[in-house]
């Protein structure tokens, strides 16, 4: 498959990207300066599918490729080729979400556990603002190395809960300690060592109430 690619100016996109990058440097306490990700704007759904390598659902509008590239549906065609409403705020959250995955990868050398990785991206990007708070945790532990819509409902609230109860520095320590973590069992151990809490729904649901 062959793609044509060219640079273009978009001051709004540039502003959103730089703002997200700066806030994430602060959050992760990680001065990422060199080889920061390229933002690659994709014009339509067919091209998204071709670049992504398989058919995508119409809610899928951006993704991160390793720590190098963020692909994102164009602002102009956003509503035409997705199920989302366009706004600058929504776009900002989207970019920040994907960039957050890249910081995570740089710091931990992995994209797992997904319940941490997606949770951080969802929480830090402000995407929780548009979702319903949950009453209890009941699925996220099934998501060490996979992702689907069910995970997004819980993972952001989990990270919010941990941040509210234990503070940002503890969360930061937790992320750094997840470096190279291979399975759910070792993730549970890191969790216990950091927060002094068993990684179970029962323990976490106690904190929720
Ligand atoms: Zn994500």
Q: Please, could you describe this protein's structure?
A:
With 209 residues, the chain is mainly alpha-helical. The protein has two domains: 1-107, Zincin-like; 109-209, no CATH class. The protein contains eight helices and three strands. The protein has helices spanning 11-28, 45-52, 88-108, 114-124, 149-166, 168-177, 184-195, 201-208, and strands at residues 38-42, 62-65, 69-73. The protein has a three-stranded mixed beta sheet with strand order 1-3-2. Strand 2 (62-65) and strand 3 (69-73) form a beta hairpin. Helix 5 (149-166) packs across helix 6 and helix 6 (168-177) packs antiparallel against helix 7. The radius of gyration is 17 Å and the shape is globular. The structure holds zinc ion. Zinc ion is lined by residues 97, 101, 118, 121.
List keywords for this structure.
single chain, 209 residues, mainly alpha, Zincin-like, binds zinc ion
CATH A-level architecture of the largest domain: 2-Layer Sandwich
Describe the global form: globular
List the ions, cofactors and other small molecules found in this model. Answer: zinc ion
What is the name of the CATH topology of the largest domain? Answer: Zincin-like
CA gyration radius, whole angstroms:
17 Å
Number of helices: 8
| SS strand fraction | 5-15%
Overall number of domains:
2
**What integer is the average pLDDT?**
95
Q: In the CATH hierarchy, what is the class of the largest domain?
A: Alpha Beta
Count of beta strands: 3
String of helices and strands: HEHEEHHHHHH
